[in-house]
Amino acid sequence: MAGACLIIYKVFVYIFLSFVVTQSAPENALIAAIPGFTGTLPSKHYAGYVTIDQSHGKNLFYYFIESEGNPSKDPLVLWLNGGPGCSSFDGFVYEHGPFNFEAAKTKGGLPQLHLNPYSWSKVSNIIYLDSPAGVGFSYSKNQTDYITGDLKTASDTHTFLLKWFELYPEFLSNPFFIAGESYAGVYVPTLAFEVVNGIDAGIKPILNFKGYLVGNGVADEDFDGNALVPFAHGMGLISDDLFEEVNSECKGNYYNSLDETCQSKLAKVDEDIDGLNIYNILEPCFHGTDIREIATDNIRLPSSFRRLGETERPLAVRKRMFGRAWPLRAPVRDGYVPTWPQLINSNNVPCTDDEVATSWLNDKALRKAIHTEEESVAGRWELCTDRISYYHDAGSMIKYHKNLTSRGYPALIYSGDHDMCVPYTGSQAWTRSIGYKILDEWRPWTSNEQIAGYTQGYDNNLTFLTVKGSGHTVPEYKPKESLDFYSRFLAGKPI
């Protein structure tokens, strides 16, 4: 009898532990259907809020997609867009999310959604987070929370992660990575530093952090500030004569020199490149055939060059046109950082038509389907908001990268090589400046048996990589190649 009782007890314990380990994600976050999409979702989607400060009512919104492969084993990646002040739905809609968006056929209609064959959810679980509070669908009931900066954002996002894993404990054992682009060049390493410190301190739940990725990310005032002039010269945008004059007069300081002659030469550089698409210098508009035809008629270029910056996305998603964006030669500095709308006194991001995302994410049925708060609470969705006041208070990112990589965390620093907003020349220079031994000398890397860019690998698992013909938002312009390097990095394979 005692033996039977013992067996029953062991069975009970086994069932209990099995339940604890495999308990599923919160059912109230599960997305049943998505307006604009008529097919079957290739994996489970969840969305909702995590309250990171109960007393203030500070809530961060996330959209979580389970991997289309093996969700219980595949890596889990947190994706962050930059700005500061830009929603991570930028990445979801326009870059590596599960759908390609076809613009509505009627005014006021919903876009039609089609499955994206190059979605990053093909090989990973992925969380798209609107951060900090005040961005996208994230909000706080205390307006003082909209005054923030690098260090507070990193701390808040770490709090989000700890609480998110409490809601989704079945993903705690998955390899965890952090990824982002542009101003997330600050978000990613500062958050990774918080996460690693939390692991060292034994803060529970213990995250299985394995590394991070940064795309065309800001990093350091000097390196970013001095990146544009060599980029412009290397791309043939300014003459040898002007480049030599700038070098002679500015003595390597291309962004904050007080010398009047230097400033006059830099003004000539600005004049030469004014009118180019700062996000990708190759074409004024990627998705409209009318613009390409105009360029073809008026500019005598080989078709191979004209097509170099062409995206593989089959549907018209967004147009990036002639215009200026982040002020040229103006790197991120300590102190107040204006958001895009504050820079130009408008709610629109320069060079960008985001009608598709804006119409979809402000649709009442869509907002209800993905569990956002009402517009009266969370506000209207905007690609980039002027609701926050943001301060750069973490300094150069180089010290963060050096700390993280020296402790064994792999880092992939990738750059679209035709981005003039955060030129690859700056990222290449600062990764080299860390001083690690080169283990994998500069070489081409391939995708689909074609050269897709170039890479250099350093000691301590630091890798720099370019993506040929791509602009600022690499997965938008080169989705297949992006999925290739992303998959290889997450799997720990050579790129």
Automatic annotation (TrEMBL):
Its EC number is 3.4.16.-. One of its GO terms (biological process) is proteolysis. The keyword Protease applies. GO terms for cellular component: extracellular region. It comes from Carpinus fangiana. Transmembrane segments: none annotated. Probable carboxypeptidase. SUPFAM superfamilies: alpha/beta-Hydrolases. This is Carboxypeptidase. Belongs to the peptidase S10 family.
